[in-house]
Amino acid sequence: MLATVHEVLPLLRCPRTKNTLQQSGDLLITYDDATGRSIEYRIVGGMPVLIDFSDSVISEEVAVSGKVQSPIERRSYDGIKKFIRHLLSPHKKSTRHNVQKLIEELTSTNPQSRLLVVGGGSIGQGMEPLYQHNSLNIFGFDVYASPHVQFVADAHHIPLADGCFDAVVVQAVLEHVLQPAQVVAEIWRVLRPNGLVYAETPFMQQVHEGAYDFTRFTQSGHRYLFRQFDCISSGAVDGPGTQFMWAADYLARSIFRSVKAGKAAKLAFFWTQYLDKLIPPNYAEDGASGVFFFGRKSQQTMTPRDAIRYYRGAQ
């Protein structure tokens, strides 16, 4: 179940200093130990905005003047558009399986687990069971306000206390941050000992969300990104068939300079995503559209040589 803003307030910390915060009206205030000066963060529309704007792609002026709205247009779909969207992007079997496994792991050890969703402005594909489960307390943040988050923050500096969460989910987010390793280090910090992380990140996928798209990972690179975690499972979320469908979309939109042409091509080749069922895992990982990692917080760190030995592709 989704937590409230009131429930998250005791866990919030200054993103710069990690000091505790005190509320004063529409401000959250702390002090810089080095200078003794106060640091203030605004509460906009009841939503704490805890971003160090000196180290973020989000500007304070844009965030506050726009009432902390998303810099990217978030479209809603209904009717035939909703049907077509589902046809082009059905729920992934691997995501459903991994989410169920995450729920089982959490509820078997702590019947009232805290789970943090990084980039939780919208409920990610296949993540609905997390929000529907009565034994999970879901906390979320994003760089914009939405009904699914309790505060606004930049994942490079997560404004939360150390070791306060049992699990973290970060789906389709790490491609949109400038320093993925820093974000993963912050995830490690806010997790309790043996805490769980579940991540999905694109590999062979074209640019989306324009200027806010930065990075891609192979399966091995994604594993090494989470090198301070023990691997429970990992693999391809979508294989080469799905990647081919995306390629058809962007080839058509590039030739005809038209997003509509791209969508038409994607619809024409939507069936290729189902070929992923015929592809062995090692081939799927080499040509994956996206990859996942499910792991547990560890005190051991994967070495560079371990990353080479980890490779499980078909080459």
Written overview of the protein:
Helix 7 packs antiparallel against helix 11 and helix 8 packs antiparallel against helix 9 (259-268). Helix 6 links the parallel strand 8 and strand 9. Helices cover 32% and strands 23% of the residues. With 315 residues, the chain is α/β, with parallel strands linked by helices. It is built from eleven helices and eleven strands. The chain folds into two domains: 5-65, no CATH class; 79-310, 3-Layer(aba) Sandwich (Rossmann fold), CATH 3.40.50.150. The model has no long low-confidence stretch (mean pLDDT 92). The protein has helices spanning 5-8, 60-65, 79-88, 93-109, 128-132, 180-190, 219-225, 240-256, 259-268, 281-286, 304-310, and strands at 22-24, 27-31, 38-44, 47-50, 113-118, 136-142, 151-153, 165-171, 191-202, 229-238, 290-297. It is globular and about 60 Å long. It has an eleven-stranded mixed beta sheet, with helices on both faces.
Uncertain spans? none
CATH class group of the largest domain:
Alpha Beta
Shape, principal axes of CA atoms: globular
CATH topology of the largest domain: Rossmann fold
- What gyration radius follows from the Cα positions, in whole Å? 20 Å
Mean pLDDT comes to 92
Provide the number of structural domains: 2
How many helices in DSSP terms? 11
Distance between the termini: 44 Å
Q: What is the percentage of strand-forming residues?
A: 15-25%
Helix/strand-derived category reads alpha/beta
Percent range of helical residues: 25-40%
Sheet of most strands: 11 strands, mixed
Main-sheet strand order equals 1-2-3-4-7-6-5-8-9-11-10
Query: Superfamily at the CATH H level of the largest domain?
Result: Vaccinia Virus protein VP39
**Could you tell me the number of beta strands?**
11
If classified by CATH, what would the architecture of the largest domain be?
Answer: 3-Layer(aba) Sandwich
